[in-house]
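Quick one: co-fold with histidyl-adenosine monophosphate.
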Amino acid sequence: MEKNKKTKKPSNKKDSNQSIRGMRDILPKEQPLWEKAYSTYKEVANYYNFQPITTPIVEQLSLYERSNPEADLVSKEMYYVKTRSGKDTLALRPEGTPGVVRAYLEHGMKSWPHPVKLSYYGPFFRHDKPQLGRYRQLHQAGFEVFSSKIDPLYDAQVILAGFRFIEMMKIKNCSIHINTIGTPRCRTTYIQKLKAFFKEKQKLLTVEQKKRLEKNPLRLLDSKDKNIQEMKEEAPTILDHLDSDSKKHFMSVLEYLEDLGLPYTLDHTLVRGLDYYTHTVFEFILDPENEAEDELNFSLGGGGRYDYLVEQFGGKPTPATGVAIGIDRVLDVIKKKEIQVLPKAKEKVFLIHIGDLAKRKSLALIEQLRDAKIPVQEALGKASLAAQLKIADKAGSKTALIFGQKEAYEETVIIRDMKTGAQETVPLAKLASALKKRL
Ligand code: HAM
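Sure, here it is.
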């Protein structure tokens, strides 16, 4: 790319030796959990026939502005990227749905056999207030369905896929909070009534809430504010303003969930923070089992139907529905509740070498064990026996292999039981079978 002379070097006042607030390193010890989340996502996607798609992390800013003009996630929480020419502003993706819709249109997927079912997994960016379950670089697993007609079956299937993911990660007591927000048409009258209801109570609203009332009164319904929580008990409900198709659609989604035996809670105040939804909206919420778990009372995932987004992006009317699971939150719950989701790690033998000849032959010995699928750990950079034994002990190894000068010369190795100290010398050729009997 051509160098732009006008571009100033970014100032570096903050400590560049520290990760950015709200963003984290995932250290080796945590990787098995992240790998488990990814393999579970793949299993769910494969089982329900979602094809994987990877979209760029950076997109045109307008993609998000068009899909969610009012949402906080776009107006307040987005990260911007200036292009080098300074002419365009791009955005770090705050969510996956708009990028997938863009890709659906860009690659002519409308001519693919429908439904087109796509899944994705990766990092997203939101300038949120960092705390447990709230990060500025977050990770989602998402599932989207584009179909030829509006079919409640697909709402149920994306809910099922999300719910199964959470269940396969061994999280219990999570329930599906579900609502319908009908079509934009039935919403118009409802919004007018809601506005009138809150206007009567204006004196009790904060400045921010008053702004919300003017811009998007629906969003007042999912405010966590105690005042609003009390007020909304008496607020008009969308259920009284649904047209017959919307009612029928919602009833049918609920029937599917009942047939599947999925636990759901009707929540007529659930509206979600994104602007593109119609009909079904839902969230997976963990029900804390005790007070100490109250901090985990967040949504582990959410989604809904978005029948107008493809059209809004210039395509033909295409019904669509989807879900995204917050991986960071799922893993936070697993860690906090100490849920055992990982299989017991395969025991590794610890190879200890003494002397130059043994060191030289060590890598070949490891290859011999690799062929036999026996995992090996080592500290070949250390020379002393005591130092290597200490590392083996710290690693919790139950079996060590001692490969000294004499053993290397005689093509043997000592198998040592780290707990009892019992030792046995075996020929290298019989090492794999001797170890398999022990492990
Ligand atoms: P969303 O509700 O904005 O929906 O995000 C989905 C999930 O991402 C949330 O339920 C939560 O678990 C997780 N999440 C959101 N913000 C954060 C954060 N700051 N830190 C950690 N986790 C977070 C969407 O993104 C829609 N695209 C879902 C969808 C797909 N709708 C239709 N298709």
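If it helps, The mean pLDDT is 93.
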